[in-house]
Design goal:
Layout: H1 14-33, H2 36-42, H3 46-58, H4 64-82, E1 89-90, H5 92-101, H6 105-124, H7 127-133, H8 137-160, H9 176-188, H10 198-216, H11 239-272, H12 280-294, E2 302-303, H13 306-314, H14 321-336, H15 342-346, H16 350-366, H17 378-398, H18 401-421, H19 432-466
Antiparallel strand pairs: 1-2
């Protein structure tokens, strides 16, 4: 009986064929990505986003409506482009300097556009790729570890804004008890986020608390959510604002964006999604496009970040579906609620946001465990660890990514020069007396082994003579 062999399916060729295959692959990804865990993961980076966006919008330095709308747009665009939960978060250094120096909206916008122009130039010329290529992995892991520790400090500051246990100053809506409960929920279900949406649980608890507080005990001059159609307007900085913004805030943000938002992020994406790597040049161009467009409308300066990706991954995000959903929600609330959400955001308990930010730092710092994977030489493993700790320590101590990067790079270069031109290390050298002692020990062990072997042969001969066949 002859067997019928099915004809092989024709593989798609050419541009149209590749486009169709890519479309089918994306449809499958979307279908598999509609899970509760994905929606929960999309909320993982709120601990960074909400406090900064609220602070700048309340002072009139950014427009909340524009920030929500453009934040949502970039969530969708980057999700489709990178096919992973690539986070979109505020530029933290610019935000800190703007709040400290009371910069105008035009200056803040100029700072964001200045950073993006530089980073985009480095991406288009592939200079960013060269920096990544020649940066030791120990330095990159050190940047990630230092950023994680910094997140822990900022998370503690958020939790400290809440009232302590009991006492006259205790309030029901924002206290250490909520922080402890959030902490327990996160770590009990730490490895079960696909089934237990911890970020969604925490966000919902915080949202209920914020609503109750806003409508039962509102602060003076509270703003209530009001549905409507909210529009945005063009913001064109003056030359003086551009100069002030670039010199005061852009120069400090550029190293942070290049190292954490591009190089460290590319390394983390490779770790978490090796089948969908994101190149440094592509990430740099993405950062450039976000602010060269959005900042003209008063949007907060955005970037990507390794901490945000780690947070969203830990809370359940595995595909682009998570941030596409988040982007749609941001656009919806930006268009129909806009700046009226500031009162609700201000009422959100900082204790819960602090725990979410802390977890993102823990997850980011955990990638440092892979530093010496595949490295067999013990001295090389030790040197890698020293470089990583040096980078992280200087980053945290000086509160500057650029200083941490230069410190780690210098330490790595010194180790390289020492190993190549300074001869053997102290661990490789052994005194002659010890070498002689080791040789004597070896000879004694050989004699003892030979003696033992001779005794065994003698014993076997005696047994054979006593028991002839």
């Amino acid at each position: 009986m002859s067997q019928v062999i099915p004809a092989a399916q024709e593989q798609p060729t050419g541009f149209m064929g590749s486009l169709k295959a890519s479309a089918r692959d994306r449809v499958r990804s979307f279908k598999s990505g509609f899970r509760l865990g994905e929606l929960s993961g999309s909320l993982g980076d709120l601990g960074t986003l909400l406090p900064i966006m609220l602070s700048l919008s309340l002072t009139g330095q950014v427009d909340l409506t524009a920030s929500l709308i453009f934040g949502g747009v970039w969530n969708i665009v980057t999700g489709l482009a990178f096919r992973m939960p690539m986070c979109v978060q505020p530029m933290k250094s610019i935000a800190a300097i703007a709040l400290t120096n009371h910069m105008s909206m035009g200056s803040v916008m100029s700072a964001g556009m200045g950073v993006s122009a530089v980073v985009m130039f480095l991406g288009l010329t592939r200079t960013m790729y060269l920096v990544q290529k020649y940066t030791p992995m120990a330095v990159i892991r050190g940047i990630q570890l230092g950023t994680a520790i910094s997140f822990g400090g900022k998370a503690a500051e958020l939790v400290k804004q809440a009232k302590s246990f009991g006492g006259d100053s205790w309030t029901w809506d924002n206290n250490y008890e909520w922080a402890c409960l959030a902490f327990i929920i996160v770590f009990i279900f730490y490895y079960r986020t696909k089934r237990i949406p911890t970020a969604m649980i925490l966000f919902t608890i915080g949202l209920i608390i914020a609503f109750i507080k806003l409508y039962t005990n509102p602060p003076l001059g509270a703003v209530y959510p009001k549905i409507g159609v909210y529009t945005i307007s063009v913001t064109v900085p003056t030359w003086e604002e551009f100069k002030h913004g670039f010199m005061s805030a852009s120069l400090g943000q550029i190293p942070l964006t290049c190292l954490n938002s591009v190089i460290a992020l590319a390394a983390l994406a490779q770790d978490l999604f090796p089948e969908r790597p994101a190149g440094t040049s592509t990430i740099a161009v993405s950062v450039g496009m976000m602010n060269l467009v959005g900042c003209f409308f008063g949007s907060i300066p955005f970037c990507h970040g390794s901490g945000g990706l780690a947070a969203q991954y830990r809370f359940g995000a595995r595909t682009e579906v998570s941030i596409i959903i988040l982007g749609l929600l941001k656009i919806f609330f930006g268009l129909f609620f806009g700046s009226s959400l500031s009162g609700l955001i201000a009422s959100y308990p900082s204790a819960i946001l602090g725990v979410m930010l802390f977890v993102s730092g823990v997850e980011l710092g955990a990638v440092a465990r892979t530093l010496n994977d595949g490295v067999l030489d013990d001295q090389k493993r030790h040197a890698n660890f020293i470089v990583m700790i040096t980078t992280a320590g200087m980053l945290v101590g000086f509160k500057h990514d650029g200083i941490g990067f230069l410190g780690g790079l210098t330490a790595a270069a010194c180790f390289y020069v020492g190993s190549k031109y300074m001869g053997r290390s102290d661990d490789d050298e052994q005194p002659l007396t010890e070498i002689g002692g080791d040789m004597n020990k070896g000879q004694d062990a050989t004699r003892q082994h030979q003696s033992s072997s001779e005794d065994q042969l003698s014993l076997q001969k005696v047994q054979v003579e006593e028991n002839p066949a």
